[in-house]
Amino acid sequence: MMLDLAIIGGGPTGLTAGLYATRGGLKDVAMFEKGLPGGQITGSSEIENYPGIAHEVTGMELMEPWPEQCMRFGMKHRMEEVSRVSRRDDGIFEVFLLGGEVVEAKSVLISTGSTPRRAGIKGEDELFGKGVSTCATCDGFFYKQKEVAVLGGGDTALEEALYLANICSKVYLIHRRDTFRASPITIEKVKNSEKIELILNSNVKEILGDKMGVIGVTVVDKQNNERALDVPGIFVFVGMNVNNSILLQEDGSYLCDLDDNGNVIVDLKMKTSVEGLFAGGDIRIGAAKQVVCAAGDGAVAGIQALEYVND
What we know:
The chain is α/β, with parallel strands linked by helices. It contains 7 helices and 17 strands. Strands 1, 2, 3, 4, 5, 6 and 17 form a 7-stranded mixed beta sheet that branches. Strands 8-15-9-10-11 form a 5-stranded parallel beta sheet. Strands 12-13-14 form a 3-stranded antiparallel beta sheet, with no helix packed on it.
């Protein structure tokens, strides 16, 4: 069976695209997501800026009703991982699954999002999952009434530091600058928190550990002064890497045009440089990296895929 639309990724973009495409009349729409739908936002500890949600919720709570609604009109969820997407000369896309199956589709939406970037600190890779984490919601409970460190200066870093401050006895927030790239209200909350100590104009030189996991971090400032923090955990939030590997072709080229940072280049209709191929959410250029924006991308892409297939 050939799909009208293959959606790669089950976050807000993919789910919303499936809703709009199937409700608009496309019959054969499948979303390929190896895990549970919801996307990266399900790991967020607090969301208070999604329109229509008047009270603060977790990412999991926000996304919980989405799959049922978005699959109401016939979109199928296939819990399989996609290894590559290609396009034949006849204009039909081929979606290669890790299990070996190749699925044909008239149109494709890439909504694979992004993943947390590693900081490249000595000891980070060796101790990842043993005290080094990129998800406070997932791992914060393990440090109840203990001291932890957070590395980063964006919205995610500050929001997760605030979340950890409700669990831990103390949070050291380490940032390489003296100003933050977060929203003013979040910065104000961090500065007013008695449990958060700011360590600015500094970076983590090394993460120390033993067979049991992290035992501390070494922090160095711009004057090369070092400070040791005896913490059993560090949470790293230093940006994201876009998940564009499924666009890599056998000859080493990419299926569509990317910018220098690997983001998919799209127009306002989420169209890529390849006809019938759409991209939305964190993987595209200029992404705001907000749930409401990702959902908007999905609505646009779903409508455009509907028009493309019908034409």
